[in-house]
Amino acid sequence: MNPFQVPSIGLNQSDNIWKTVFINLETNPHLFLLNYLFAQAFEEAYDFQPHISLIYKKLTTDDRKEIIRNLPQIKSLLFGSISIVNTIGAVTDWENIYEKNFGE
Fold it and tell me: Quick one: DSSP state of residue 67?
C-alpha cells in the first residue's frame, strides 16, 4: 500500500475518553481495507468510525469546545504509516508493537 490522503469531515468532541477531541475522517477505500484486515486478524467486533483522536482526557463539554475553537481546521491528512500499539495499562506504559511505512 502506498501513502494515501483522507479528507477530514471536521473537528468534534465527546465525553468518551477515547474520543475526547478528534478529527472525523471521510470513509475511504484504503481505510476500509485496513479495517477489514485488522478485523480478520483480531476477530473482534468494531464499529468503524474513521477518526484521529487528539486528546485522551476527561474534560468538560465547555473545555472540549474551547479546545476545538482554538484549533485550525484540517482539510485532509496524509497517511504514510501505520502502528499497532498495546494500550494495556497507563498511557505511559503503552508500547508500539508494530510499525509499517506505506510504500516500502
Answer: H
List C-alpha distances in Å: 53 to 1, 10, 26, 30.
23, 12, 14, 19
User: What tens digit of pLDDT does each residue of 32-70 get?
Assistant: 998 888 888 877 777 889 999 999 999 999 999 999 999
Left if phi > 0, otherwise alpha if psi is -120 to 50, otherwise beta: which for 89?
A: left
Grid cell listed for 5? 490522503
CA atoms lying within 13 Å on the CB side of residue 75:
0
Cell of 4: 494515501
- State the pTM of this model: 0.84
Q: 3-state class of 9 per DSSP?
A: strand
Give the span between the Cα atoms of 28 and 9, in whole angstroms: 12
What fold characterizes domain 4-101? Cyclic Phosphodiesterase; Chain: A, (3.90.1140)
- Contact criterion met (CB below 8 Å) for 53 and 19: yes
